What does this fold into?
Amino acid sequence: MKIIFSGGGTGGHIYPALTLINAVKNKMPDTEFLYVGTESGLESDIVPKAGINFTALKLEGGFERHFTLENLKRAADALLSVKRAGEIIKNFSPNVVVGTGGYVCGPILLAASLKKIPTLIQEQNAVAGVTNKILSKFVNKIAVGSELALKKFPAEKTVYTGNPIRAEVLAAKKIDGLKEFNFSEDKPVILISGGSRGARSINLAMIDVLKNAAEKNSAQFLHVTGKNEFDSVTKKLKDANFNFDNPNIKIVPYLYNMPQAMAMADLAIFRAGATGLAELTARGIPAILIPYPFAAENHQEFNAKVLVDGGAAKMILNKDLTSEILSEQIEELLKNPAELKKMSAASLKLGRPQAAEEISDLILSLAK
It folds into this structure.
């Protein structure tokens, strides 16, 4: 069995692919994989480190959503990439080709479709991406992470599966997380993260939140600033005479052990990327969501709205975010354990922990 995976640009496209690769491996250990990405995307670093064969297509970026001269150049690059993708498929001879999002999926999925090789795309967001909208006309199966996305694709080939979740996220235990970060069982834990690069608006709002929290010491905070934002955040806190020795507050640039952090969290303050929300709901973690306002088609706000409507989260729009509003939301929830418990149950109800199993079954059925 040979399978090509493609997905790139952000971790939200790469990690679902890696999760699906592991799910297929568990069922078919002898499967051979090839990952097709771009040289400049995060996938060129993450995928080889995961021990998966990697090859790159030369693509500058996806299409803009209106006519530009740059789009003509990118169209020419895309056509050349389809030719290169055809060569990759000929040499590797896959049984099935899978795309998890990002413009790099376009050439490889299109080339596979033209060669009558079975294909599947996985759309993580409530609002479908441009590449997946185009590919939906050619592929054999579409697995969507949100029920809202069902109506965006042809009904006869679209399945609502949820988004694939790393096995480590599901397996992590609360007690292990508390030990890992040296936190107590006696106080609630709040996990704050704006993604690997960080979210400036969330980080700025958290400055006063953390200062106030240090004075009250009634809750524990693990704030992941993002690598690009860490120095700025710590400088602002130093200027505010923040006590970095407070055992109830930990500030880090990045987490390699996010599954353990999520396992101990009683409340999360997150952006609304599809992968993060899938993991939150699989663990039943109540959340305050601040959608990234410049996401394509404003898809993060739609992602967040699914959880809000389901009773699993509160939402603060980025334009409305202040330290005061965020503090009020946190305080209100911490003072109402019954509400947090209710939100947790609602979150679990929305979770799809079996998504990777379902999608890997679809992939293998196509391959056979």
User: Anything to note?
Assistant: The two ends are 9 Å apart (CA to CA). The mean pLDDT is 92.
